[in-house]
Amino acid sequence: MTDTAKPPRIYVSPPTIFLLALLGGYALRAVFGAWLPIPRVYLEGIGVVLLSMAAWLFVSAITVFAEHGEALNPSTEAYTLFHSGPYRLSRNPIYLAMMLFGAGFAFASGNLWALLTTGLAGLVLHFFVILPEERYLSAKFGIEYTDYTRRTRRWI
Predict the structure, then answer these.
(1) Burial (CB count within 10 angstroms: exposed 0-12, middle 13-18, buried 19+), residue 114
(2) 86-112 as b/e, with b when 16 or more CB fall inside 10 Å?
(3) How far apart are CA 12 and CA 129, in angstroms?
(4) Do 101 and 18 form a contact (C-beta atoms < 8 A)?
(5) Quick one: average pLDDT of 32-53?
(6) How far is CA 87 from CA 61, 92, 95, 125, 148, in A?
(7) Would the pTM of this model clear 0.90, i.e. be above it?
């Protein structure tokens, strides 16, 4: 564990990445069409399930942040490595919640483009947010973080 590790520089906040993805998906649908070819009742049902999962996961994850007095901004220093709540199942439950939200919204509205842009946002998040965060946490918490990565998957 070292106090000299510097938090990663994240140039675009993760919520902004997902908002831009959803807006992009809706703009693309407005121009090109592309509805998901599934009956509306199923789309809405899948959407509601995914949106509900996203809400539960997001609230559970930010509750852990609040309990430890940590900032949600990935560019700020981390003082605690979380192992409780949804962090037992995923190292990135907030980002997973954002992906579930994007997919849920895309399904509920039948928007193929929003589903694709949500996937693209996940890739951007992986390479430009998660990997830098992981390098920082590894430098900051050392073997404790390495052990955590062996026990807990990155996404699900």
Answers:
(1) buried
(2) bbeebbbbbbbbbbbbbbbbbbbbbbb
(3) 9
(4) yes
(5) 94
(6) 7, 7, 12, 18, 10
(7) yes
